[in-house]
Write a structure and sequence with these properties.
heterodimer; A: mainly alpha; 9 helices
Chain lengths: ~260, ~250
């Protein structure tokens, strides 16, 4: 029994180590294309439309909702201490530093990332990726690099939008439900929120954008086994991305707060 | 022109190619035959550099391609066209864009020059009527023609056919066999390598038949020599009899 569990743990660790190793190699490979300037700008623009523009409405809805709910939650507590006036500042801090980057990345993983994996893995199992290689086209350069660059550009922009829409949600809650004066809401927001907070949030979103696009393209290009393989690849891509987002979120927050980079 | 020297390839603990050696002359049509799982697709993937052997060498125009770096390998692949078993057309592109794809990626041709080249191949293969269709709207035979057009657009020196007639009705098989000969006749220096289970096609169209068995070349001969071979494995393969010396599993 003990032998079975040890062997199971060993095999699982080995499997994940191999995946992480391959993922690191894939990242290095894609980075080398980017730094050598082998970028297909037309494809980047297409991907910006798919990842960025087409995700805007869902980001807006999520941000508005999160901003309003967060406003309600903290507003309820602040009301006990008659401190509803700082509701906007608290929501702003939370949104810029933490909520907006992670919500944007999570929504983009579910909407754009999973679509990337499903599309690329379908191409893989239908031999279209092999055909591409046979035509002397590197799939990492042709398929992954434009998606990664577009994600790195689109994610901070959408995060900024998420902050803005979240603040509108919080503003509506503060003014309509907690009867906070508009002037006080904005004054407190300006007093507590600094450009550094926004910058720190955007720093995270750049890393998150690279993370979900690299992981999702990697799983797509390594899919195998027909329709089942497409489903498994997409599920694994989303799970791995979410775990890595949480991990990188902690690391970046630690660096920003403790190390103060 | 293409030579395999003692090529060995394993996947995990399973050895697919034990010791494969053969030569394919320039301008010929060669069929690589053998039962399923004998490594026919693995063999052609070595020619195009999608796989590297564990040991042995693969020569293309007297140059060993097994030691090529990624960049040189991409240049090597530009000299080869490949028709995949299911054509492997890009779903999101029209027939025209599928055929134009290699030129768009590798050349800086103006749109009218590119159009001339694409239309030349399209008319040679008589697929004008569906150039604006998507692959999903085509029959299997039509997809194969488009796949062949895409493989020919860059005027390759070698064209690889991966089981071009598997799972097709006899009329389509006949049409594709004729197409292989027609393409080879139209392009004098073109070398065609066909992977197939279709013995009739091999005997009718090949200049050379290479039979793989148990990871080795069992026989490399002309169709005439192949037909007259007394080898029991070859006889069994020709007769299609399940009983005989050939191991089926």
């Amino acid at each position: 029994m003990i032998h079975y569990f040890i062997s199971k743990i060993g095999k699982t660790s080995l499997r994940y180590s191999l995946v992480l190793g391959s993922l690191a190699k894939f990242t290095a490979n894609c980075s080398s294309f980017i730094f050598r300037g082998r970028i297909r700008f037309k494809h980047v623009l297409n991907q910006l439309e798919i990842i960025g523009t087409q995700s805007l409405w869902i980001i807006c809805i999520c941000a508005l909702s999160v901003g309003a709910v967060f406003g309600l939650q903290v507003g309820g507590i602040f009301a006990i201490f008659k401190a509803e006036a700082i509701l906007g500042a608290a929501t702003g801090m939370a949104l810029t530093r933490e909520l907006a980057p992670i919500i944007t990345a999570t929504v983009l993983t579910g909407r754009a990332g999973s679509a990337m994996t499903a599309e690329i893995s379908t191409m893989k199992v239908n031999e279209q990726i092999d055909a591409m290689e046979a035509m002397a086209v590197n799939p990492s350069e042709y398929i992954a690099v434009p998606r990664i660059i577009a994600s790195i550009i689109a994610t901070p922009l959408l995060t900024a939008f998420c902050i803005f829409m979240g603040m509108i949600g919080a503003y509506l809650v503060a003014v309509v439900i907690f009867s906070v004066d508009i002037g006080i809401f904005l004054t407190k927001l300006r007093a507590f929120l600094s450009p550094d907070d926004i910058f720190q949030g955007l720093q995270k979103s750049v890393v998150f954008g690279a993370t979900y696009s690299i992981v999702c393209c990697f799983y797509g290009l390594n899919a195998s086994g027909g329709a089942k393989g497409v489903g498994e690849g997409t599920t694994n891509a989303v799970i791995t991305t979410l775990l890595l987002l949480l991990f990188f979120d902690f690391i970046i927050t630690y660096l920003q707060i403790v190390v103060r980079i | 022109m293409i030579e395999f020297k003692n090529v060995k390839k394993s996947f995990g603990e399973r050895t697919i190619l034990q010791d494969v050696s053969f030569k394919i002359p320039k301008g010929s049509i060669s069929f690589i035959i053998g039962k399923s799982g004998e490594g026919k697709s693995v063999t052609i993937k070595h020619i195009i550099g999608l796989l590297k052997p564990d040991s042995g060498e693969v020569f293309f125009d007297n140059k060993d391609i097994t030691s090529l770096e990624e960049e040189s390998l991409l240049e090597h692949r530009k000299r080869i066209g490949m028709l995949f078993q299911h054509a492997a057309l890009f779903d999101s592109l029209t027939v025209y864009e599928n055929i134009a794809f290699p030129l768009r990626v590798h050349t800086k041709l103006k749109e009218n020059e590119l159009n001339d080249k694409v239309m030349e191949v399209i008319s040679a293969l008589q697929i004008e009527e569906y150039i604006q269709k998507l692959p999903a709207e085509l029959s299997t035979g039509e997809k194969k023609r488009v796949g062949l057009a895409r493989a020919l657009i860059t005027k390759p020196q070698v064209i690889l056919y991966d089981e071009p007639t598997t799972g097709m009705d006899p009329l389509i098989c006949e049409m594709i066999d004729k197409l292989i000969v027609q393409v080879n006749d139209q392009n004098k220096d073109l070398t065609s390598i066909v992977i197939s289970h279709d013995l009739k096609a091999a005997l009718d169209t090949a200049h050379q038949i290479i039979m793989l068995y148990q990871g080795r070349v069992h026989l490399s001969a002309s169709p005439k020599e192949f037909l007259s071979s007394k080898d029991p494995i070859v006889r069994q393969f020709l007769s299609g009899d399940a009983n005989g010396p050939m191991k089926l599993a």
